[in-house]
Specification:
The complex is a heterodimer of chains A (about 550) and B (about 240). Chain A starts with a helix and ends in a 17-residue tail after the last helix. Chain A is built from 22 helices and 11 strands. In chain A, strands 1-2-3-4-5-6-7-11-10 form a 9-stranded mixed beta sheet. In chain A, strands 8-9 form a two-stranded antiparallel sheet. Chain A has about 550 residues and is of the alpha+beta class. The radius of gyration of chain A is 25 Å and the shape is globular. Chain A has helices at about 5, 15-25, 95-100, 130-135, 145-150, 170-175, 185-205, 215-220, 235-240, 240-260, 265-285, 290-305, 315-330, 330-345, 345-350, 370-380, 380-385, 425-440, 450-455, 460-470, 490-500, 525, and strands at about 30-40, 45-50, 55-65, 80-90, 115-125, 150-160, 225-230, 395-400, 410, 505, 515. Chain B is α+β, with helices and mostly antiparallel strands and about 240 residues long. Chain B is about 35% helix and about 20% strand. Chain B has an 8-stranded mixed beta sheet. Chain B has a two-stranded antiparallel ribbon with strand order 1-10. The longest helix of chain B is centred in the first third of the chain and has 16 residues, at about 25-40. Chain B starts with a strand and ends in a 23-residue tail after the last helix. The chains are: A alpha+beta (about 550), B alpha+beta (about 240). The interface between A and B is large, with 73 and 55 residues.
């Protein structure tokens, strides 16, 4: 998979936030606020009960008073405005005492397998107090405020899947409530959103009980949750090729199915026009200070605006549209059009959403011969073979974890310390080294088994396992050198985020960006309303 | 204390890499030890002993392989199953045509059940016998992983004290019946042990685990003011 295209992906209806909301509505999950006790000093706690067919869960939100200078998006932060956890079942008093002690410490705390998630969030300084001040005097915020900043709070990490003693992903799958990838993390973010909406109402009411009003429903729905996304997502994709393969395979299959639709109905065309119009408006509302992204957005808006003027044929119109886009439009537009056409066919594609764990068992076939391995590298890893890893530019960067809270960082080789402890992200280099070892062998030596070769060359075991494993995960390999001088990690972050279902990408550097999740998503009571369309929030715009 | 399966596999893998194992060897060793940990076997203690005994030593096993008829004998030269297990398994998959491989002069055989994880990655089935503390143990990796309750009844090809025997049935590749050395009716599925550990966390001894974590943490790079700029979140506008 080419990083340029991966970095142009957009959310689709298969994204995890969409899949979660569909499931919550279908299974009629209820979310009930048990208590909300947060003071104007921003200290206190709130608790919510979530009932699903698979069990009951408790979401605990803790509010903390911090100084302005302590507020940061960085992983190395040690204080946050709010910290959260989801506990399996109803915590007793001992659990609550333990959670009140540990959850504020986040990654410095210790948890049990009954805790599924920990997370933390900070206020959006731009909006938070402004919204409360208005509500306190009976004034609704201007929806335009949320066009630029689509959230009241911004998460800076969501940990699950066995971190710090919490429940393993296998446990979540065993129970049945959260077998989909990142489902429990997405639920956490959904609940953080709910908490933030309840919080501004609560604090406005505490500020001025006589005149305060709650946030208008249409505005509530338009508020999402922000997130600051850092480098850790990129090594995740490298280390989990089976996961990346599953996500992309589902997406590619969805696109293929839709493009194969020969004669869409009039309703499909109408829906396409409606979603396209909304998407054009959504893109016009996508503001970022980043010049490169702004330029891309301008081009995206311009190209999308040309689509209504295209004469789409009655037969195979979506294939025509996407092929036209590949010839005439940029990557962002191509990929957003893929997302739009997928949106039209829930019956065709929703079954493709990742419904459970993928088998990540690595493979190795020691009985194969070295000659077969050499040929395989020449056919499938030519992209790595052409890179000259003796060139300084190919090894310009190295990835490592800082002693400060294991924050993933990038260093410059030869300038920054830590290259001797670099993380393994450059699979291309390992495979290139393997290939060089094979190139030096004669015909007789190439008839040797891989098992015999690895006896005397154990340093190549990981590369061999990678090559053999990726046979079953054809979309799993990112064909790029992450240590090269021209590497832009942002593209990989954007790829993963698109599968989460994020919008409003706001790059802050090559290393991180801010995004918004769940903007436009149904509110908890709307999930139970059978007259409410739970699934029509692609490319959200304010509809008030 | 209790730890998650994720912590077992990732922290062991990092610790072994920092100890000097190449990445592939470290990953396989971590799979073995993590499996042992989930199944309530002596994973941590054996790891601690391994780390003490191999401090500063070469971790590359020096195998001597002899083939006599249909039997392949491997002398591991005193290597640990952690460093030699995967390579020995590779040979067993490759050269024995489904017949037994006898591995001698191998230490840390108490971790032999962890090989079940590596067997799966090779797409084969296996029957593994090993001797530990003068008792003969066995494990089969078929659809499930099952251990026999030790001691099992010895058969006519008695294993020497440090011998581990790997009998592979390569059903994925050949339709060939290979008789088991013996079969003990009292097999217990380790899958149930693993499910329980997944549900409740795996129990580890705190001080020993702290040593492993400390070794893994040597991969963390001390920071300075300049290195802070290499992380995400730098330049935030304070929003």
């Amino acid at each position: 998979m080419d990083p340029e295209r991966l970095g142009a992906f957009h959310q689709t209806r298969l994204s995890f936030v969409r899949a979660l909301v569909r499931r919550m509505a279908k299974e009629r999950w209820t979310i009930e606020r048990e208590y909300f006790d947060v003071a104007l000093t921003n200290e206190g706690e709130a608790r919510y009960r979530i009932e699903t067919p698979q069990g009951i869960y408790t979401f605990l939100a803790l509010a903390h008073r911090i100084n302005e200078e302590e507020r940061t998006d960085r992983a190395i932060a040690e204080k946050w405005d709010y910290t959260f956890t989801i506990h399996d079942g109803v915590p007793d008093e001992n659990d609550m005492a333990r959670l009140r002690e540990n959850v504020p410490q986040q990654d410095y705390g210790r948890y049990t397998s009954a805790e599924l998630v920990i997370s933390r969030a900070n206020k959006s300084v731009r909006l938070f107090e402004r919204v409360i001040a208005g509500l306190a005097v009976g004034r609704q915020p201007d929806p335009a405020w949320f066009v630029d900043v689509g959230y009241l709070v911004r998460t800076t990490a969501v940990f699950a899947n066995g971190f710090y003693g919490m429940a393993d992903y296998a446990r979540l799958c065993q129970q049945g409530a959260f077998p989909q990838p990142f489902a429990v993390q997405m639920l956490t973010v959904y609940l953080v959103r709910l908490f933030s909406l309840d919080l501004v109402d609560h604090l406005a009411s505490k500020t001025n009980p006589e005149s305060a009003v709650p946030l208008d429903r249409e505005i509530r729905r338009f508020v999402g949750v922000g997130n600051a996304t850092g480098l850790g997502m990129a090594p995740f994709l490298i280390a989990h090729p089976h996961v990346l393969d599953a996500w992309i395979a589902a997406r590619e299959e969805a696109i293929a199915r839709v493009l194969d639709e020969v004669r869409p109905s009039a309703e499909h065309f109408e829906r396409f026009q409606a979603i396209l119009a909304r998407t054009i408006q959504h893109v016009s509302e996508w503001h970022t200070p980043d010049e490169e992204q702004t330029s891309k957005n301008h081009r995206l808006h311009l190209e999308l605006s040309k689509v209504p003027m295209l004469q789409l044929p009655a037969e195979s119109p979506w294939r025509y549209l996407c092929e036209h886009a590949h010839r005439h439009f940029g990557l962002e537009t191509q990929e957003l059009l893929h997302s739009i056409v997928i949106e039209l066919y829930p019956a065709l594609v929703d079954e493709l959403e990742c419904s459970g764990p993928t088998d990540g068992t690595p493979r190795i076939y020691p009985e194969r011969l070295l000659g077969d391995l050499k040929r395989q590298l020449e056919e499938q890893y030519d992209w790595a073979a052409v890179l000259d890893y003796d060139e300084a530019e190919q090894l310009h960067f190295f990835w490592y974890k800082s002693a400060m809270k294991a924050e993933p960082r990038i260093g410059t080789r030869g300038e920054d310390p830590g290259a001797d402890r670099e993380m393994v992200v450059d699979m291309g280099r390992a495979i290139s080294c393997l290939y060089r070892a094979l190139v030096g062998l004669d015909a007789q030596q190439l008839k040797q088994s891989i098992a015999r070769f690895l006896l005397t060359h154990p340093q190549h075991r990981a590369a061999v396992a990678r090559v053999h494993s990726l046979e079953q995960w054809p979309y799993g390999e990112i064909r790029a050198n992450l240590t090269a001088k021209d590497c832009v990690p942002l593209k990989l972050l954007r790829c993963k985020l698109s599968f989460f279902g994020t919008v409003k990408y706001d790059p802050k550097s090559d290393l991180w960006l801010r995004i918004t999740l769940f903007q436009g998503a149904p509110l908890p009571d709307e999930l139970l309303d059978t007259d409410f369309d739970h699934d029509d929030w692609f490319a959200p715009v304010f509809e008030g | 204390m209790r730890v998650s399966a994720f912590e077992l596999s990732t922290i062991y893998a990092t610790a072994f890499k920092m100890f000097g194992m190449p990445a592939g060897m470290a990953n396989d060793a971590a799979s073995i030890v993590a499996a042992a940990g989930l199944w309530g076997l002596a994973g941590l203690e054996t790891t601690q002993r391994f780390l003490e005994q191999h401090e500063g030593a070469s971790l590359e096993p020096e195998f001597v392989v002899q083939t006599t008829g249909s039997t392949v004998s491997i002398s591991a030269g005193g290597a640990s199953l952690l460093t030699a297990g995967a390579a020995a398994l590779d040979l067993a998959c490759t050269e024995t045509d489904g017949c037994a491989v006898i591995i001698s002069d191998l230490t840390d055989t108490v971790l032999a059940p962890g090989l079940a994880r590596l067997v799966r990655a090779r797409g084969v089935e296996a029957f593994i016998e090993w001797r530990c503390a003068n008792e003969l143990h066995s494990l089969s990796v078929l659809d499930e992983v099952e251990t026999a309750q030790a001691p099992v009844k010895p058969h006519d090809c008695l294993l020497a004290e440090t011998q581990m025997r790997v009998n592979l049935r390569a059903h994925a590749r050949k339709a060939r019946e290979t008789s088991l050395c013996f079969r003990n009716a009292a097999f217990t599925s380790v899958n149930k042990l693993e499910a329980q550990a997944i549900r409740d966390g795996a129990e580890v001894e705190s001080d020993g685990w702290a040593q492993v974590v400390a070794l893994a943490d040597t991969m963390l790079v001390p920071e300075n003011e300049q290195s802070r700029s290499g992380g995400a979140g730098v330049g935030a506008d304070g929003d």
